Amino acid sequence: MTIPTTMSGVVLTGHGEPEMLAWRDDLPVPVPGRGDVLVRVAAAAVNNTDVNTRLAWYSKGESEAADATWSGISLAFPRIQGADACGRIVAVGDGVDAARIGDRVLIEPCLREADGAGLPTPWFLGSECDGGFAQYARVAARHAFPVDSALSDVELASFPCSYATAENMLTRARVQAGETVLITGASGGVGSAAVQLVRARGARAIAVTGAAKARILSDLGAERTLHRDDDFVAVLGRDSIDVVVDLVAGPTWPSLLDVLRPGGRYAVAGAIGGAAVDLDIRTLYLKDLSFFGCTVLDPGVFAALIGRIEREEIAPLVAETYPLADIRAAQAAFGDKRYVGKIVLTVP
Question: Right CATH number for 162-293 from 3.40.50.720, 3.40.50.1360, 3.30.413.10, 3.40.50.150?
Answer without folding.
Answer: 3.40.50.720
